[in-house]
Backbone:
């Protein structure tokens, strides 16, 4: 297992974080919740100590299920959760990162997680109208109260990052993978100019980089990837991603690692201060992804993969 300090918080976390959106049981296809909870238990046993959730996953169900799965192990792990995505009566989502909503959202997450503190608390999306300084001040006050140990910002633009760079922000979370490199320069800038740890989600491109999917793959009604806004699985983007996954598999036969392991390792080696978040449904996925750790791609392999 590989570990790293989270920003300047002093908190030590595994470089592979267990993504818990699937524990919300919503929109990722059929999920055996009991199996996913067993994967949480085994993750702790194999040294993964970092679990990433949000109040909007489910909504609320991910936090509840994570608490049940961790049980007495809560004291031995690091939990990150998020606030800022709310639902109207018609179930449409909107963003709210105001201090008033932070108060209510944090209390709800603490209750559902069965804990009196959250290790890392994220602004899920800046709402675009609350002054960032007000949100930062409110988060600082929660650290002082002991309700959170540190905080971060997710889905922040380069312009918004400039406001957070000199705060006590410990982590910045963005999407990044071989299937989506749109945040690449932004993440390198964060690594260079901020104490915050880059946390990367979507490292397997919602699964397309595993090599399991083909151009004629269809998804069930309860799987969000069937919708065209999940571009990794549609049109020219799908064709391109399948080619990348095939190249990863070809390399894997040479270096004795799976496509998934190489895809995650590429992120970790490309961003040496980073943490990779991987959504895990089953124990076999956990056993595969844990083998992303404890080795490095060579310089030549990194260059080759980056040119895929």
Residues:
């Amino acid at each position: 297992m590989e570990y790293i300090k989270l920003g300047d918080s002093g908190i030590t976390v595994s470089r592979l974080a267990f993504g818990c959106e699937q524990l919300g049981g919503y929109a990722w296809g059929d999920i055996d919740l009991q199996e996913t909870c067993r994967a949480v238990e085994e993750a702790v046993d194999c040294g993964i100590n970092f679990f990433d959730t949000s109040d909007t996953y489910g909504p609320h169900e991910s936090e509840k299920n994570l608490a049940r799965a961790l049980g007495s192990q809560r004291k031995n792990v690091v939990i990150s959760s998020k606030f800022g995505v709310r639902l109207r009566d018609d179930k449409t989502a909107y963003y709210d990162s105001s201090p008033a909503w932070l108060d209510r959202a944090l209390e709800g997450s603490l209750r559902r997680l069965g804990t009196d503190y959250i290790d890392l608390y994220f602004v899920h999306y800046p709402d675009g109208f609350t002054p960032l300084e007000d949100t930062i001040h409110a988060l600082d006050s929660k650290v002082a109260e002991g309700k959170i140990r540190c905080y971060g910002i997710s889905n922040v633009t380069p312009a918004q990052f400039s406001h957070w760079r000199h705060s006590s922000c410990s982590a910045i979370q963005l999407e990044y993978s071989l299937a989506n490199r749109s945040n690449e320069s932004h993440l390198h800038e964060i690594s260079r100019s901020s104490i915050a740890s880059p946390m990367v989600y979507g490292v397997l491109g919602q699964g397309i980089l595993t090599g399991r999917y083909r151009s004629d793959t269809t998804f069930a009604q309860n799987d969000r990837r069937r919708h065209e806004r999940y571009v990794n699985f549609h049109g020219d983007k799908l064709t391109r991603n399948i080619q990348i996954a095939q190249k990863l598999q070809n390399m894997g036969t040479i270096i004795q690692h799976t496509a998934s392991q190489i895809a995650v390792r590429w992120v970790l080696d490309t961003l040496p201060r980073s943490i990779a978040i991987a959504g895990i449904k089953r124990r076999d996925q956990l056993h595969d992804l844990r083998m992303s750790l404890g080795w490095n791609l060579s310089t030549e392999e990194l260059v080759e993969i980056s040119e895929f």
Remarks:
- The domain at 3-207+274-296 is CATH 3.20.20.100 (TIM Barrel).
- The longest strand covers residues 148-154.
